[in-house]
Amino acid sequence: MLKFSALPLAWVMGIGLSFAYGQGSPQLVHEAQWEEGKRYLAQGKGEEAREIFAGLLKRYPREADLHLFLGLALLKLRDPQGAERHIRRALVLAPDHAEARTLLGWIELEVRRDYAAAIEHYAAVAQLRPNFPEAYNNLGVAWKKKGELDRAVENFSRALELRPDYGEAWSNRGWVYVERKKWREALSDFEQALRIRPQDEGALYGLSHVLRQRRDYAGAQRALKQIMARSPNFVYWLEWGELELVRYYWVLLVVVGGFFVHARWKRLGGGFFGNRGTKKA
Fold first, then answer.
1. What would the pLDDT profile of 216-255 be if each residue is shown by its tens digit?
2. For 59, 78, 104, 229, which has the most beta carbons within 10 A of its beta carbon?
3. Pick from 81, 82, 70, 3: which is nearest to 41 by CA?
4. What CATH code is assigned to 1-113?
5. Residue ranges of domains in the chain
6. Cβ distance 173 to 160 under 8 Å?
7. Could you report the per-residue pLDDT of 83-98, keeping only the tens digit for each?
8. Under CATH, to which class is 164-269 assigned?
């Protein structure tokens, strides 16, 4: 479950957008401010990046990459409406701008929750770049959110055909298998994701979920412990505690049963001996 983030960088949003694509025109390449603005954005300095890109746009109003990167800076500053205006302007100037369309798809998916529109944009990117695995991963995420699990699996699988070491796609497909209760397939995908990225929080959490379904409570706890070592999320601690109770519930039953038997024996035994020691008048 994703929420809108103020950090619109590619590795945060998972849109497969690389700053390497934002080369700009020959005029921008020779602008020191262009490189400075991208550097600020990569460092998370949204306001500084916004000022530089806005200044450059006054001189180069028809540069699609400038509109795109200004949109990224505005997302960083939690202004999705302003970001969308500039991203759409980039697409007017360059209709085949795959990065702008990808970012617009992300806004439709995570901000507007318009899954059909997100699918349309991501599908267009896949057509523009058919060998771009991130396009199919994004499309799989959108289909999953729309509830079309078969299509989600199809697109995650395509992403993995193009890039077998794509840990995020392995994890994403694993979660689809979880929804379909295909535990063996889900386990395989999460394990493969963790071989690629051992600290993948989503894959670790998915692994704990699958192991719990398979009644491997100790294994599920080990997976949760790895997440808890880095994340303060209370949900993980709560689930770990639940697993602890499940693992040792029989100990509680034995203890409670022992108290019950002891109390019962004492009550019955005390009455029996008391009756034998009582004489009638």
1. 888 888 888 888 777 666 565 556 456 555 555 444 444 4
2. 104
3. 70
4. 1.25.40.10
5. 1-113, 164-269
6. yes
7. 999 999 999 999 999 9
8. mainly alpha
